[in-house]
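hey so i finally got around to running the thing on that chain from the lab meeting. sorry it took forever, my laptop kept dying and i had to restart like 3 times. anyway pasting the input first so we r on the same page abt which one it is
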Amino acid sequence: MSTVADLRTLFDHWTAGEHRLPGRGMQWRQTSKTGGEAIDIFPSGKNALRVQIDG
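ok and heres what got predicted. didnt touch it at all, straight out
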């Protein structure tokens, strides 16, 4: 992702109409260890994934 706005647009698209499912989910974080905002994705039975701004 290039900007916070791009990241927010992607998050909003992915979560539009989302139904809560056990063991799955997504969260928006305003800070991360590597700096900047990030989306964390928690697929069922798998390691978490992260989408963040290219730096």
